[in-house]
Amino acid sequence: MMDWQAIALTARLAAIVSVILLIISLPLAHWLTFSRRRWSFLVESIVSLPLVLPPTVLGFYLLMSMGTRSPLGRWWSEWTGHSLAFTFEGLVIASVLYSLPFAVQPVAAAFAQIDPSLREASATLGASAFRTFARVTLPLSIEGVIAGLVLSFAHTVGEFGVVLMVGGNLPGITRTVSISIYDHVQALEYGQANQTALVLLAFSMLVLMAVYGLRRRPWAAAPIT
Amino acid sequence: MTLAVGVTKRLGPGFTLDVALSAPPGITMLFGASGSGKTTLLRCIAGLTRPDTGRIAIGDRTLFDAKNEVDVPVQDRHVGYVFQQAALFPHMSLRENIGYGLNRLVADERQTRIAATAESFRISDILDRRPAQVSGGERQRAALARALVTEPSLLLLDEPLSALDHAIQSRIMDDLRRVNEARRIPMIYVTHSHREVYALGIQAVVIDNGGVIARGTPHEVLDRPEQSVLANLAGFENVFDATVVERRERAGTMECRIDGTDTELEVPLNSSAVGASIRVAIRAGDILVGSEEPRGLSARNVLRGRLAALTAHGPTMVAAVDAGARFIVHLTPTGVEALNLQPGDHVWLIVKTYSCRIVADTPWHS
Amino acid sequence: MRWFVLLVAVLAMLAAKSGYGRVAAQARRALTVAAASDLQAALPEVIAKFERESNATVTVSFGSSGNFFAQIQNGAPYDVYLSADIDYPKQLIASGHADASSLYQYARGRLVLWTRKDSGVDISGGLRSLTDVRVMRIAIANPKYAPYGRAAEAALRYEKIYDAVRGKLVLGENIAQTAQLVDSGNASVGIIALSLAVGPALRARGTYSEIPALAHPPIDQAAVIVSASARKPLAREFLAYLKRPDISEHLHRFGFTDGR
């Protein structure tokens, strides 16, 4: 069935985007939460833009900035030989930007509710900033991190407008499941559309159940008195 | 190694912390009301807060010097800090908490040190539990162990016992004293409890509104009621070192003699043996004055003395009476008038047994 | 914490799986076609036959002509562009994105009214029947960028009923989506392409009524080869194939008239 290609493509896209966002969101959320710079609210606003922008607006700007007529698009085709838009790589970049607030916000929220005296205690005991992060901050906020990971994944799977604009619906390359379903509906192939949608639903449920089912709460984020 | 601190920091409109003090090895009590700036001072010393100006040094190691732009980061200061709420890492066992600062040691040596410190704080058999699974007192002991196991050159304690009940406080204070005898590092202990000041400190520094208003031994500092601030803070204007001379089990009382005098007081019974040294505190407001020898009173402590001084302090008349030891008594102006008291008069002091509080089992010697 | 590491490891494995991005490109000889969605019913058979005869793999993306136009201008990697409005290919040629010599007007499109058999709406009266109060929503393609949408609006104005019915209009993103709006019952009637109405899916489910060709400017449809294409020989083969009499005949059966 042709659509296994779309499903596999979507799964791969969501996986790559989630991992990239995990790597980006941790330092970004850390800086946003703990920085004392007064202009951090500016960065926060920029990061949150995709939450309020309609996907088509975002898709439009991304297409403009990644297409062959843009500086970025031209630089990319010189470097790699293909265009940036209408490729899987272009989708990855677009999806990372589009799902960024979904990864950053839960993590930042989790960081913020850690009792500051725990991080201070770690520092007084000689721990470097990195050690405090790895041994205190991160373990105590792991649920927020996982939430960010799951949300990035789910959000990427569900994308449509941005993917269509930037990706161009090329089968096997940028035709994700959501677009594939849309295609089937347009071609009045309701049976196919239904099948694909069910597989997507089942897959998403499995992912969510795996993540939430395996979660445990052996500790709270605040010290007990 | 002595800690030398001289810093200022603006804390709010019209409120600036401006403190200079030096703390020799041993326990220095930093005493003051909430909001007086004592925690901020502690945080400056630890490096958690940056002072506006000044200098902080331990021995010849400078931690902070505004003029020469020295500001050693927290993690390099080697200063132990015990937080008011213990701040133990909830996701680690007590053992892992205590060992947290020892990560650069080999596993064997780390375990040895943890075991030794845990022993001295009596928590050896609960090391593998999580903070949520132990009591408040045990948590605070673990916090102490965690701070001390790294052998810091200075220990800072921010009201570490305020959340605990008195019995537990006493035991932990004993632990601390033992540690102090063994280690000889400056320890700065912030508190708003005068009981703790008497029980622990060799040096007390009183902070009010961002500045030092008194400095000296607990006695010197807390027995000066003309400083109204101190009088409020202290609450016990009379504190005496005494020796137990008799125990009366059935009556539930003890007889003790104030050191250096013949004056004896009946105080509530505790576990002290005959010959043991105790510290007795009596509020000035709990002492009655009579111009004639009283009869038919239930009170056991009736002392004869001479009124040495009488001063007005706001609405209160403060009388200093020599009755073997010097007692400070608070009276109303009406009372003074009624008895027509004058300095030099013979007076009788009446003190209920239960107005005599035993503050610590052992007096603190420097 | 360990579960978290496991989760990330699984994700990393998923992410590392290779191959899907390149499948379509590497197989045999391959061609990518961007086709206006009014060809949704007629083109698949044409493509299948071409694939057999020339031993190539053709991937088709259906969509709105306007959308493809914008994408091709921004470097979308299609080889051949079949547009429902000859204006777009002409603009692409002017801006250097398409080869002038390849321009081929392959058909002229026709408009029809279409409704489901069970909708209870009588469209035998032609466009006039749209003013009936029982007709609550009318689907047309978006006149801003869909050729069939522009033609539909022109026809409505020609009939002088545009103002009367404009409150009932529901806009589809392209002509196929417009048909789907009616098919799903979201609109009771639609102005769609004849080529879709006679297609196997809709023919069984609904009835159509032709809208006279003079009610709107002609919908001239043209194909063009994209300049940036790396598979021009195969693209030219495909266009030559489209010009064959038997293929034109096939298109005629779907209501496309000759493109003159």
Note the topology:
The complex is a heterotrimer of chains A (225), B (366) and C (260).
Chain A: H1 3-34, H2 40-52, H3 55-66, H4 71-80, H5 88-112, H6 116-124, H7 129-140, H8 142-158, H9 161-167, H10 177-186, H11 190-214
Chain B: E1 3-12, E2 15-23, E3 26-31, H1 38-46, E4 53-58, E5 61-65, E6 70-71, E7 79-82, H2 94-98, H3 107-120, H4 136-148, E8 154-158, H5 166-183, E9 186-191, H6 194-200, E10 203-208, E11 211-216, H7 218-222, H8 228-234, E12 238-248, E13 253-258, E14 264-268, E15 277-282, E16 287-290, E17 301-313, E18 316-323, E19 325-331, H9 333-339, E20 346-351, E21 357-360
Helix pairs in contact in B: 3-4
Chain C: H1 2-16, H2 23-26, E1 29-36, H3 43-54, E2 56-63, H4 65-73, E3 80-83, H5 87-94, E4 104-109, E5 111-116, E6 138-141, H6 147-158, H7 162-165, E7 169-172, H8 175-183, E8 189-193, H9 194-197, H10 200-205, E9 206-210, E10 219-225, H11 232-242, H12 245-253
Parallel strand pairs in C: 1-2, 1-3, 6-7, 6-8
Antiparallel strand pairs in C: 3-10, 4-10, 5-8, 5-9
Structure description:
- The complex is a heterotrimer of chains A (225), B (366) and C (260).
- Chain A has 225 residues and is mainly α.
- Chain A is 76% helix and 0% strand.
- Chain A has 11 helices and no strands.
- With 366 residues, chain B is an alpha+beta fold.
- Helix content of chain B is 23%, strand content 37%.
- In chain B, helix 3 packs across helix 4 (136-148).
- Chain B is globular.
- Residues 225-229 and 361-366 of chain B have low confidence and may be disordered.
- In chain C, strand 1, helix 3 (43-54) and strand 2 (56-63) form a beta-alpha-beta unit.
- Helix content of chain C is 40%, strand content 22%.
- In chain C, the strands form 2 sheets. Chain C has a 5-stranded mixed sheet with strand order 2-1-3-10-4. A 5-stranded mixed sheet of chain C has the order 7-6-8-5-9.
- Chain C has 12 helices and 10 strands.
- Classes of the chains: A mainly alpha (225), B alpha+beta (366), C alpha/beta (260).
- The A-C interface holds A 5, 8-9, 11-12, 15-16, 18-19, 22, 63-64, 67-69, 73, 77, 82-83, 85-88, 139, 142, 145-146, 149, 153, 168-173, 175, 183, 185-189, 210-211, 214-215 and C 1, 3-4, 7-8, 11-12, 14-15, 17, 20-25, 32, 37, 40, 59, 61-63, 70-71, 73-77, 174, 176-177, 179-180, 183, 201-202, 228.
